[in-house]
Amino acid sequence: MTELVVHRAGVVLVQDAGRAGQAAIGVGRSGAADQSAYALGNRLVGNRPGAASLEVLLGELELEATATSWLCVTGAPAPLSVDGRTEPAGTVVALRAGQRLRLGTPAAGVRSYLSVRGGLDVPPVLGSRAHDTLAGIGPGPVEAGARLPLGDDGAEAIRVEAVPAATYDPSPVLRVVRGPRDDWIADAERLVAETWTVAPDSDRVGLRLAGARLALRDPDRQLPSEGAVRGAIQVPPSGEPVVLGPDHPVTGGYPVVGVVVDRDTDRLAQLRPGETVRFRWE
């Protein structure tokens, strides 16, 4: 059995396309925060859709293969080397038995995806190998000393050897549609008028925004808990918006002023604390 042996790891999670269809039992979808970068990596190494990969936060990963393996890194363009030889991000590389692959800190973006031909064959939970940080289910965080077996999700020949490294706008403008409770907000137009700063306590559950406060029309009014979706922009009593991420709860009790369109939610996953973002109505 071919394995990836982890020698050093920062914040590294196993992720796949997520566990859809479990909201009725209180379990969200989770999965890769940047779905397009994750899916691209699997296509590059010839995997079937949904194969498990590694989601690496700000680099800091070192591993070796026990047999020849084909890998690539997509998403945040982390510096990549094999036994000290530099390789560009987005390139499919062969990692021979005993060779070590190292990822450094990307200059832009937050999350890189390391995909390997065959996918990671860790035990699934409720039909998915994704680690849900809120529910605490799925494979645990990857740590030094872990041995990750490879599966048989490789389905196609590797046809593309490299793609351009990802680039990110320093201050993106993301599209939003009006939320179901925008009338609960006295100044809902401030959502698109302000420039928001990503707060340091942002995570996979939610992207916290600072820089302005949205006022509730009636701060004492109570909202029954209702279904929540990725990209929903909730307004808690503090008035500072929170954009729900891939590990969001399945219900929420704060009014939703807007929802980031699905095509733009991947960009949220690559925003760093201190960076800015604006919104516009779709």
UniProtKB/TrEMBL annotation:
Ordered alphabetically, the record's keywords are: ATP-binding, Hydrolase, Nucleotide-binding
Q: Which InterPro entries match?
A: CT_A_B (IPR003778), Cyclophilin-like_dom_sf (IPR029000), PxpC (IPR052708)
**Domain (Carboxyltransferase): residue spans on this chain:** 24-281
Which species does this protein come from? Nocardioides panacisoli
Identification of the protein by name: 5-oxoprolinase/urea amidolyase family protein
List the Pfam families: CT_A_B (PF02626)
Alphabetized SMART domains for the sequence: AHS2
SUPFAM superfamilies from the entry? Cyclophilin-like
Organism phylogeny: Bacteria, Bacillati, Actinomycetota, Actinomycetes, Propionibacteriales
